[in-house]
Amino acid sequence: MLRWWDLDGNLLLVGKEEAEQERQRAERAERKAAQLAERLRAMGIDPDRVG
Question: Which domain covers residue 23, as residue numbers?
Answer without folding.
Answer: 14-42
